[in-house]
Design goal:
Blueprint: H1 3-11, H2 15-27, H3 32-52, H4 58-80, E1 88-94, H5 102-113, E2 116-120, H6 127-137, E3 141-145, H7 151-168, E4 174-178, H8 184-190, E5 194-195, H9 199-211
Parallel strand pairs: 1-2, 1-3, 3-4, 4-5
Helix pairs in contact: 1-2, 1-3, 2-4, 3-4, 4-5, 5-9, 6-7
The protein binds cobalamin (B12).
Cobalamin is lined by residues 41, 44-45, 47-48, 51-52, 58, 61-62, 65, 97-104, 106-107, 143-145, 147-149, 176-181, 196, 198-199, 202.
């Protein structure tokens, strides 16, 4: 039994096998980050490369994603069940026009695991939905995910709308952005308060934003 088997099962789109193999690794006490990075996420990276190379297509990408999600469901309780006391409220979503949610879901699980109250708005989220949810829940942070290059202007529009709501609509919330096409420079340029490269870093950065005061 090895992590490689999880990777191979994702590449073979074997959803049930992935769930069983992840469970077996969890039962054996394997480090969760190792299961995620070496078993599940690295497989998706290769799937993405094959998609770019034109050797597989959207249906395969979707089957691989479903296999990974089956694995994530197994680790979810372990990531979110820390008993930590609420440290803040985060509104999370993938920006308008973008349907990718695996990275966002992972970020969400780690926020929950770190004791944040999480309101996950899902994918294809309109700027106004983020703002209303932040107002309704007295949120501290709005975290935006995007995987497509076309999501970058959407993210900019959303951050701008939130900034405007902070100024004119009695909102007081910070913004964090992430996803493969996003980097620190882009985040700074669009005026986001934070950028993080992955889910564990996102949690540390969110804590730092909270400590810096809202
Ligand atoms: C799975 C997948 C899909 C699945 C998504 C299923 C799902 N439920 O999410 C499906 C099949 C639906 C899909 C569709 C499409 N996809 Co797609 N997809 C992927 C793939 C293979 C994996 C993405 C993934 O889940 N990665 C794993 C997660 C864990 O990583 P992650 O999202 O990067 O998240 C980490 C960090 O980025 C960060 N993070 C993420 N969000 C946030 C948010 C915050 C606030 C912070 C702080 C951090 C953070 O933390 C995460 C964990 O550590 C990628 C290739 C790749 N390697 O990325 C292509 C990819 C993203 N897709 C691509 C494309 C082109 C498409 C389509 C346009 C294809 C088509 N012709 O229809 C459609 C678009 C649909 C739409 N409107 O969104 C391209 C994007 C190219 C580009 N630069 O724009 C990629 C890069 C493939 C490629 N190499 O060409 N896709």
């Amino acid at each position: 039994m090895s992590i490689q088997e999880i990777y191979d099962a994702v590449m073979a789109y074997e959803e049930e096998d992935v769930a069983e193999l992840v469970q077996a690794q969890v039962d054996a006490g394997t480090d969760i980050e190792k299961i995620l990075n070496e078993g599940l996420i690295s497989a998706l990276d290769v799937i993405g490369e094959k998609f770019s190379a034109g050797t597989l297509f959207v249906p395969e990408m979707l089957m691989a994603a479903e296999a990974v999600q089956a694995g994530l469901e197994i680790v979810r309780p372990l990531l979110i069940d820390t008993g930590a006391k609420p440290v803040g409220t985060v509104i999370l979503g993938t920006v308008k026009g973008d349907l990718h949610d695996i990275g966002k879901n992972l970020v969400g699980m780690m926020f929950e695991g770190a004791g944040f109250k999480l309101i996950d708005l899902g994918t294809d989220v309109d700027p106004e939905e983020f703002i209303s949810a932040a107002q309704e829940n007295d949120a501290d942070i709005i975290a935006l995910s995007g995987l497509l290059t076309t999501s970058m202007p959407e993210m900019e529009k959303t951050v701008e709308a939130i900034r405007d709501a902070n100024k004119n609509r009695n909102l007081n919330v910070k913004t964090m952005v992430g996803g493969p096409p996003i980097n620190e420079e882009f985040a700074t340029r669009i005026g986001a308060d934070g950028y993080s490269v992955d889910a564990p870093t996102a949690v540390d950065d969110a804590r730092a934003l909270m400590a810096a005061g809202i």
